[in-house]
C-alpha cells in the first residue's frame, strides 16, 4: 500500500536524518 511506503520513507528519514 502507498501509506505503508510513505511511513517507511518517514521512518527512514527520521533515522538517517539526525545521524
From TrEMBL:
Keywords: Membrane, Transmembrane, Transmembrane helix. It is found in: Membrane. The keyword Repressor does not apply. It holds the Pfam family YjcZ_2. InterPro entries: YjcZ-like. Transmembrane segments: none annotated. One of its GO terms (cellular component) is membrane. The keyword Cytoplasm does not apply. Its main location: membrane. It comes from the Bacteria. It is a single-pass membrane protein. Belongs to the SscA family. This is YjcZ family sporulation protein. It comes from Halalkalibacter oceani. The lineage of its organism: Bacteria, Bacillati, Bacillota, Bacilli, Bacillales.
Amino acid at each position: 500500500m502507498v501509506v505503508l511506503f510513505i511511513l517507511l520513507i518517514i521512518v527512514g528519514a527520521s533515522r538517517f536524518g539526525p545521524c
